[in-house]
Amino acid sequence: MTPTPNQAQLRRDRPLCHRMMFITCFLTLCFSGVLWRLYDLHLKKGPALAEEAAKKFREDRVLPAQRGSIKDHSDRYLAYDEEVYELRTDRVHLHDVRSVLPNLARIRGVSQKELTRTLTPEEILKTYHVHVAEALSSKMGVPVETMLEKVTSKRPIEVLTQNMNDDQGKEWRQHLENLFVKGIYVKPAVRRHYPTDNRLALIIGGLEEGKGGVQGIERTFEDTLRGVPGSVCVEHDKYGRELLLYRGEIKEPVHGKDVHLTVDLQMQDAVDAIVAQAQATYRPNKIMAIVTEVATGSILAMSFLPGHDRAQPDTTNWKNLTINEPYEPGSTFKVVAFTAALDQRKLNADENFDCHWGLYTDPVLKATLRDVSKMGTVPAREAFAKSSNIATYKVFKRVGQDTYLDYVKRFGFGKKTGIALSGESRGYINDGDWSNTTYSRFPMGYEVNVTPLQMAMAYGAIANGGILMKPRLVDRIVSDGGRQVTPVPPQTVGQVCTGKTAAMMRELLQGVVEHGTGSRAQVEGIQVAGKTGTSQRYDHELIVGKNKDGSLRKGGYRKDQWITSFAGFAPANDPKIVCVVVLDNPQAPDPADIGGGKVAAPIFAEIVAETLKQLSVRPQRPLALEGGAE
C-alpha cells in the first residue's frame, strides 16, 4: 500500500518531532529545576540566607559611652578620657588586589594594565606589602621583617602604635599619603589619662581592658563612671566601607557620671611631700599618714610609702597601706579604756593613781607592767599624759572585759569602716578567751590590730562629741554636663560615748601634747590634742625557741624594732581635722629616739600645720612649749 503524502511527511518529520519533544522535556525539567531552586532559596532557605547576608554586610555598631571623670574636691582632674589616635592595619584592603593596584601603579610609575600584565595577583600583593612594611619601618624605627609580619597578618586589625596626639596623627596621615600607602589608617581612639601619675594612684585606681575598673574609685564606682553604650545599625560594601544611605536608627549612648572626691590635691601633695621627707630621714619599712575632717568624716589626704608605680604594675605595691595594713597601735589605743571608764562613771580624771614608780605586778594575774615615766601617785590625767601602762591597766580593771570590748567595738575596731575602696582590712580584736598576757597587754594596744583609717575615725569620734562617722571619700556625683549634682552626704555610724565624756577625753588628749609625751606634736598658735604610740614590732619569722618535736618555734616581738605612731586632732577646742601618722620600723642613730613622741609627733605637727593653713584656720594663741617625757 502506497503511503499518502501526509504519512510520508510525518515519517520525514518524526525525528524532528522527537528532538522537539526531547528539547521540550529537557527545558521543562530545567525550568522545573530552576523553579524548585528558587522555591528552595526564597521560601525554604530564604530567611537563613538573608540573615547570613545581613551578618556579612550589616552590623550593629556600638557607640561607646564616654567614661566619667574623677576629680578632687576643687574640681582638679584626677582621671579622664582623652582622644588619641592609633595606627592600624586593615586586612580587607591590604589583601584585595583591586584595592592596592592603583597605589602600587603610582609607586612603580606604570599603568595598572602594565602591572596586571607583568605580575600575578600574588606578586602584586607581595610587592605592595613589602613597600608598606618599608614605609612603616622607616618612620617607626622597627625592623622591616617585624612590620611585614603585621602587614601580612590574618587578623582583621593589627594595632601598630597607640596613644598618638593630634599632631602625631596628622604627621602619620601625611607620611602614608606621601608614600601612597593604603590599608594603614590613623583611627581615633580613647585612653584613660591620669594627670597626677602615681599620686593618689591606689585611691583613684585604674582600668583593665575588657574588665573596667580594677582598683580604687575606678572599681568601686564602675557602674557610675562607665555609662551605657549606644548603638547604630550600619551596612557596608565588601570593602568594609559604610553605606550611609542605609544607616539605621541611632540609639545615643548615655555617658558616665563624674565622681568628685573629698580629697584635695593641693593638700594631698603637701602631705605626700612631708611623708617623703620622713621616709628619707627615718627609713622605715612603711610609713602611713591620713587626714580626715572631724564633722563629716571626709578623707582630705591619704599618703603612704612604698606607693604604687603605674609604670611597673607587676612589681609595685598594690596595697593602700592606710586601709589594709593593720598594725599594733600601742599607747594610742589607751583612749578606749579611759573613754569607757569615764563614760561608765568609774573614773574621775582628777583622782589619784599609784603608778608604783614604773614597776607593778598584778597579784592575781602575776603579770608585770612597766612605765617609761617613773611616777608615784599622780592624778589620772597626768598618768594618761605620761602614758602610764600601770594606770591604764588599773582603769581597764574597773571597766571589766565585757564592757571594755563593747567600747572597742563602738569605736569601730575589728570591723571594716565601709570606705568606698576595695581591699579594706577589718583588723583584729581578740573577743574570745583571754590569757593573762592579753589582760595586761590588750588595753595598752598589744594583741590587737587596727588600720590607720580605723584609728583616724576613732579619734574623730572623740573630736566629734562622741559620734563615730563613716569615712567619706566621695563628695558628689555630677552628670549631664554639670547640670545635675548629687551630693553624697556624711553618714554617722553610732554614738561611742556621751558628749560630756568626749569633752573630757579631748581635755586629757590636749594634756598629752601640752605637758606629756606628745610635746613635739605642738603647732604654733594652735591647741592640739593627741596621743603617742610606741609598740614592739611582731615578727612572724623570729625564732623564739624549739617545739617538743625539735622544730623551730617562730613568732615573737623584736626588741630592736618598733612601730611608732601619733593620733590626734586640732584645734583641740574646736576640732576641724584628725591626723594619724604611723611608721613601721623607723631607723635612728640612738634607739631611744624612735618613740612615737620623737618620730611620729613632729611629722604629725608638720602635717597639721600645713593642713590648717590650707583650710584657713587662723592661729589662736602663741606657742607654749612644755616638756613631757617620751
Automatic annotation (TrEMBL):
SUPFAM superfamilies: beta-lactamase/transpeptidase-like, Penicillin binding protein dimerisation domain
Domain Penicillin-binding protein transpeptidase intervals: 288-608
Record localization: Membrane
Record field: transmembrane: 20-39
Single biological process term from Gene Ontology: cell division
Keywords recorded for this protein, A-Z: Carboxypeptidase, Cell cycle, Cell division, Hydrolase, Membrane, Protease, Transmembrane, Transmembrane helix
Pfam entry (one): PBP_dimer
Entry GO MF terms: carboxypeptidase activity; penicillin binding
Domain Penicillin-binding protein dimerisation: 63-243
Cellular-component GO terms for this entry: plasma membrane
Protein name: Cell division protein FtsI/penicillin-binding protein 2
Record organism: Prosthecobacter dejongeii
